[in-house]
Each structure stands twice: as C-alpha cells, then as structure tokens.
C-alpha cells in the first residue's frame, strides 16, 4: 500500500468516526472526554488532508 493510499484510507476512517460523533452529539450530546476526542480527530483529519495534498503535488 502506497503512502498516498494509506493517507486516503485514514481520511475515510476519520471522516466516518467524526460523522458518528456528530450524529451522537446531535442526539444525546457528548461527554467532556468525547468532546476532546472529537476535537483531536478533527485536528488529525486536517493534518492528514494537508499531508495528502502535499504528497499528491510531488
């Protein structure tokens, strides 16, 4: 598996997990720990997308 494919797959997984947390937040709300985890996943997704875009340019 190439690095670009790995980053793409990781983005898909992060997006799915973030979507699940958004849905849970809309229905029940998130605990403080879940909220911190949610914010960290968003940061990871942005970093991952940046790395994916920069590796595609090369």
Name the average pLDDT.
94
Shape: elongated
Total number of helices: 2
Largest sheet composition: none
Gyration radius over CA: 13 Å
Structural class from helices and strands?
A: mainly alpha
In whole angstroms, the N-to-C terminal distance is 18 Å
Beta-strand share of residues = under 5%
Order of helices and strands: HH
Number of strands: 0
**Percent range of helical residues:** over 70%
Query: Unreliable segments (pLDDT under 50, ≥5 consecutive)?
Result: none
Provide a descriptive summary of the structure in words.
- This protein is mainly α.
- The protein is 88% helix and 0% strand.
- It contains two helices and no strands.
- Helix 1 packs antiparallel against helix 2.
- The protein is elongated.
- This is Fur-regulated basic protein FbpA.
Concise account of the structure shown:
By secondary structure, the protein is an all-alpha fold. It has helices spanning 3-27, 32-57. This is Fur-regulated basic protein FbpA.
What keywords describe this structure?
single chain; 58 residues; mainly alpha; elongated; Fur-regulated basic protein FbpA
List the SSEs and their pairings.
Blueprint: H1 3-27, H2 32-57
Helix pairs in contact: 1-2
Protein name: Fur-regulated basic protein FbpA
Organism: Paenibacillus eucommiae
